[in-house]
Amino acid sequence: MRHFRSFALVLATVAGFHHPNLIAGSPVLRTQRGADSGKHDHANIGFELLINKAFLPSDFDQEVFDNLWQSWPASLRERAAKASVGERRAMAFERYGLTPRPQQDRGNIVDGKRDLADPGKPLQYVVDDHGNWTMNCFSCHGGTVYGRPVPGAPNNRYALQTLTEEVRSTKFRLGKSLGRMELGSLVIPLGTTNGTTNAVVFGIGLMNYRDDQLNLVDRPPASFTHHDMDAPPWWHFYRRPYIYIDGFAPKGHRGLMQFMLVPENNASFFADHEDDFQKVYAYLSSLRSPSYPGHIDQSLARRGAKLFESNCAECHGTYHHRTDAESIAAYPNQLVPIEDIGTDPVRHRALTVAGREHYARSWFAQSGGPERRETITDPAGYVAPPLDGVWASAPYFHNGSVPTLWHLLHPQERPTVWRRVNDSMDESKVGLTVETVPRVPLEKPDVALRRSYFDTRRFGKSASGHDYPNQLNESEKRAVLEYLKTL
Ligand code: HEC
Ligand code: HEC
C-alpha cells in the first residue's frame, strides 16, 4: 500500500508541488521551487512565523526558565544541581513535554538568521533575541511521534499545568511579576493530565469578553465546563471542510486566530495579523501524515482494507488516493449523534449553542473564503475525523482516553487508569507503551507525576463508546489494525 503514497509524491514532484512534507517519517521542509512555488513559499513562511514570531505577550524569560529546576522535587533537584547546562535543559524539556526543533533545510528563513537547530529553543515556544519565551501553537500541536519531534503532531506530552505552576513559584523566588498564565491558572485549570489541555474553555472564556467585531466588552464572568482535550494532528487539516471534533467551524484563516484572544490584543491586532495567518493557513494545509516506520504485513493489510471499506469508511472515508482533490472528495465529514457515538459527551455540552452562535456572528467566522460555508451552531454530536497517520497520533478519541489502536478496536478491554512508561511505540497494539494501574497513586509527593496518569473515571475523561469495531471478530480486528498502519 505504501507505494501509493510514494507514487503520489512522485506525481506531486513532477507537477511542481513541494510541501513541507513528512516524507518517510522524517520531517523535511522542501525548498525547491516549482510551478506552485507561491503556495509553497507561503507554507514555509507560515511555519517560520509560528516558531519565530510572538503573537502574545511573553510568558517568562530565560532566567526563569533556567531556574525552574529549583522548584522540582528533591531527588530531581539534586540531579539537576550537578548537571551541565545542556543536561539540565534536557531534563526541563522532558519534564514539560518540550522538544528540540527538528533540523530542517534553512531555505526560506524569514529574516535569514534564525538557527532552527539551536538546542536552547524548543519547537513549542518562540524565544526572542532578549530571551523572552512565548507559547506558540506547537505547544499543543507540535510533539513527538515515538520520540522524534514532528511539527503538526499532537503534543501528547505537554505538561502545561506543571510548567505554569513552576514558573509561578520561580517568579516568586526571583521577585518577578506574574503573567497571565500563572494568574489565569488560579481560576481556570489548564489541564489535569499531561498531553491534554482545557484549551477549548480558554477560547470560550476569552470570547465571553468580546463583541462580534472582537472589541473588548465588560461582561460578568460566565461559568464554564472545564474539560481536557487531546489536540488533533494538523496533517489532516487539508481534508476537512469544517474543524473541531463537533465540526462546527468552517475552515478559514481567521478562525485560526482565536488562540490570540488575550486582553492585550485588541480588535485591530487581529486585522493587522490576518496576512500572517493566511500563511499559517497555507502551512497547515501543506502538511501530510508521516508513513509508518515499522513492518506491515501487506496481505493482512489488504484484507483489513476490505473490512475497513465495509465497516468504517462510511464515516471515516477512504485512503490512498492519487491526488489531494480525490482525498478531499473521499472524506465524508460524517457527523454522528452523541447518543450513537457514545464517547465522552462533556465536550459536546461544554460549547453551547449560544457560544457557537456568538462565534458565527463574529469576525472569526467571516473569512470570506471561496466556500462561504455556514457555522453549524447546533451539531448533534461528533464528526468522524480523517484517519491519515492515525498510528502516529495516539492517544485516541477527542479526550485522549484510549492509549492504542488495539484498545480502540477492543472497547471492553480499554484500561481504566493508565500511564505511559516510555516514548517508544507499542508495535503490537500500535500506540503508546503504557502500564495499567488500579488507581492514581495520590501519596506520591510530586503532583507533576500524578498528571502522567490518565484516569478514565474522571469528568470528561471517559473511554467508552464507539463500539463499531465489535461488529468484527478477532481475526478481522487484527486485519483492520494492520490496515490502519498504512494510513
Ligand atoms: C493549549 C493548547 C492549544 C494551543 C496553544 C493551540 N491549540 Fe489548536 N487545538 C487544541 C485542541 C485541544 C483542539 C481540539 C478542539 C476541539 O476539537 O474542540 C485544537 C484544534 C485545532 C484545530 C482543528 C483541527 C481539527 O482537525 O479539527 C486547528 C486547525 C488548530 N487547533 C489550530 C491551532 C493554531 C493555528 C494554533 C496557534 C495559533 C493553535 N491551534 C493553538 C489545542 C491547542
Ligand atoms: C457511525 C460512524 C463511525 C463508524 C462506523 C466508525 N467510526 Fe471511528 N469514529 C467516529 C467518530 C465520530 C469518532 C470520534 C469520536 C471521539 O473522538 O469522541 C471516531 C473515532 C475513531 C478513531 C480515533 C481517531 C482519533 O484520532 O482519535 C479511530 C482510530 C476510529 N474511529 C477507527 C474506526 C474504525 C477502525 C472503524 C471501523 C471498524 C470505525 N472507526 C467506525 C465515527 C465512526
From TrEMBL:
Protein's name according to its UniProt entry: Cytochrome c
Keywords, alphabetical: Heme, Iron, Metal-binding
Domain Cytochrome c: from-to ranges: 299-487
Gene Ontology molecular function: cytochrome-c peroxidase activity; electron transfer activity; heme binding; metal ion binding
InterPro entries referenced in this protein's UniProt entry, alphabetically: Cyt_c-like_dom (IPR009056), Cyt_c-like_dom_sf (IPR036909), Cytochrome_c_Peroxidase/MauG (IPR051395)
Domain of life: Bacteria
